[in-house]
Write a structure and sequence with these properties.
two-stranded antiparallel ribbon; single chain; globular; about 40% helix; five-stranded parallel β-sheet; 7 strands; alpha/beta
């Protein structure tokens, strides 16, 4: 955090799977989140963005993550959480990243399928700010290059704020 080139700190503690958290929320609140909150205070004191990375179903602990100082959640995996519901409930308090389906659209779809899903996410989640379009997890080597480019180019074409429709 001492370098001027740092704009954000991302915590890569993957806490969830499609059914819920890997360990109980009670355990997280007692042993894990106090450390995250302390780190969050330091990050925020430097004026940096504090991002949390975890796929999986995190509904039970999102309020805890916000209390820890997190401002962004990545990657909002479609199989685990409804990003439109997340935006409705947490928009203005938490920016949302990702949600372009790695399990199907990015890996098995066509560039046109990717383009349509990106436009759908931008229309549904983009208005009002707080959405960063991207994959619902990392982008592994088995994602067809054409699909990756379709995601990037469609986001660049339609994802510029203010969102005016696509």
């Amino acid at each position: 955090m001492d370098f001027d080139c740092i704009g954000a700190i991302r915590m890569p503690d993957d806490l969830g799977h499609t059914g819920g958290t890997m360990v109980s929320p009670k355990f997280l609140r007692r042993y894990i989140f106090p450390m995250h909150k302390e780190i969050g205070e330091r990050v925020r004191a430097k004026g940096l963005l504090y991002m949390f990375h975890s796929d999986g179903r995190l509904y039970e602990v999102i309020d805890d993550l916000i209390e820890c100082g997190y401002q962004s959640l990545h990657p909002c995996e479609p199989a685990s959480m409804d990003i439109v519901e997340l935006k409705r409930k947490y928009g203005g308090r938490l920016s949302l990243c990702g949600n372009i389906n790695l399990d199907s659209t990015l890996t098995l779809g066509s560039p046109r399928d990717v383009e349509e899903e990106v436009k759908l996410r931008i229309r549904a989640v983009g208005p009002g700010g707080g959405y960063c379009c991207g994959s619902s997890n990392s982008v592994p080597e088995y994602v067809p290059y054409e699909n990756y480019i379709a995601m990037i180019e469609t986001t660049q074409r339609h994802g510029t704020y203010p969102i005016t429709g696509c």
